[in-house]
């Protein structure tokens, strides 16, 4: 079954997860088990792809063979109970690296998920992960970006459009995620006109290419290990935001609701909330 067939025929799927092969907190077998218990018919593994430099969150190229072997073992073990899919969350790093590159076509992936987590510093090649926790993002803003939030947001969406144009993938992951950290730096930024224009441009580009847009529910609950005060004030989020989800749906863009779980106990967190928005 293709990913489009899966998401249009059932809600019993989850196509974005992280395990021992990147920054997930449990191994693939535990996720497969949790997926069966949660009643999924289709479950996809998407470790952060190898990239051409070291990152603590990404799988090394040398681990890929072991990842594929473990996948094949589990696929056989779970046959008849759940359909498991081999994939990766592939980083787009500009022309130098992304889902359209030969390396990824050479792997037996069932589908490809493509996301942006890194953007380059203003006048260099150094890539900075802008996807982590807000407190780290604030440090990076002063350390690498001269506190120029407009540069960071513009670059994120510029790279997003380039990634869509380059193609080679089925699903675009959490495409407005920079809004989360950018809002910590400058509250209200996502309501600004220029910011909204970026979102509209991405929606147009997704529609033109016929790819699937992910609704990512990872931030629906406060981070695991958050302090009680943080949990009490935590504002649940979806990527993209509810207004943007509605725009995707009215543009006729196929939408995949994924939990991007790093912990098996969070395997379904936020998915119901996302489906409610689509149904409303
Ligand atoms: Zn991601
Ligand atoms: Zn992810």
From TrEMBL:
Q: What is its EC number?
A: 3.1.3.15
Asked whether the UniProt record includes Cell inner membrane among its keywords, one would answer: no
- In which pathway does this enzyme or protein participate? Amino-acid biosynthesis; L-histidine biosynthesis; L-histidine from 5-phospho-alpha-D-ribose 1-diphosphate: step 8/9
Instruction: Name the enzyme's class.
Output: hydrolase
Its taxonomic path starts at:
Bacteria, Pseudomonadati, Bacteroidota, Bacteroidia, Bacteroidales
> What is the recorded name of this protein?
Histidinol-phosphatase
Which UniProt keywords are listed?
Answer: Amino-acid biosynthesis, Histidine biosynthesis, Hydrolase
Q: Which SUPFAM superfamilies match?
A: PHP domain-like (SSF89550)
Its BP terms in the Gene Ontology are: L-histidine biosynthetic process
Which Gene Ontology terms cover its molecular function?
histidinol-phosphatase activity
Q: Which domain of life is it from?
A: Bacteria
Similarity field? Belongs to the PHP hydrolase family. HisK subfamily.
Which Pfam families does the UniProt record give? PHP
User: Domain named PHP: which ranges?
Assistant: 15-217
Reactions accelerated catalytically = L-histidinol phosphate + H2O = L-histidinol + phosphate
Hydrolase: present as a keyword of the record? yes
Q: Which residues form a coiled coil?
A: none
């Amino acid at each position: 079954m293709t990913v489009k067939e899966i998401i249009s025929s059932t809600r019993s799927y989850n196509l974005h997860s992280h395990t021992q092969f990147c920054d997930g907190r449990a191994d693939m077998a535990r996720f497969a088990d949790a997926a069966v218990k949660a009643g999924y018919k289709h479950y996809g593994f998407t470790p952060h792809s190898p990239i051409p430099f070291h990152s603590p969150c990404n799988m090394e190229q040398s681990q890929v063979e072991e990842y594929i072997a473990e996948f094949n073992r589990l696929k056989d073990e779970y046959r008849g109970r759940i359909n498991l899919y081999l994939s990766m969350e592939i980083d787009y790093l500009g022309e130098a690296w992304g889902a359209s590159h030969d390396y990824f076509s050479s792997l037996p992936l069932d589908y490809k998920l493509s996301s942006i987590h890194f953007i380059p510093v203003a006048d260099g090649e150094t890539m900075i992960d802008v996807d982590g926790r807000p407190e780290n993002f604030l440090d990076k803003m002063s350390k690498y970006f001269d506190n120029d939030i407009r540069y960071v947001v513009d670059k994120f969406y510029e790279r997003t459009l380039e990634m869509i144009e380059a193609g080679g993938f089925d699903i675009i992951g959490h495409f407005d995620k920079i809004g989360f950290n950018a809002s910590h730096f400058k509250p209200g930024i996502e309501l600004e006109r220029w910011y909204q224009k970026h979102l509209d441009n991405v929606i147009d580009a997704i529609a033109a290419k016929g790819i699937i847009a992910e609704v990512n529910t990872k931030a629906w609950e406060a981070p695991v290990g958050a302090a009680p005060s943080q949990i009490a004030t935590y504002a649940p989020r979806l990527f993209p935001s509810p207004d943007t989800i509605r725009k995707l749906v009215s543009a006729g863009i196929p939408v995949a609701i994924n939990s991007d779980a790093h912990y098996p106990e969070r395997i379904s967190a936020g998915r119901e909330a996302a489906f409610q928005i689509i149904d409303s």
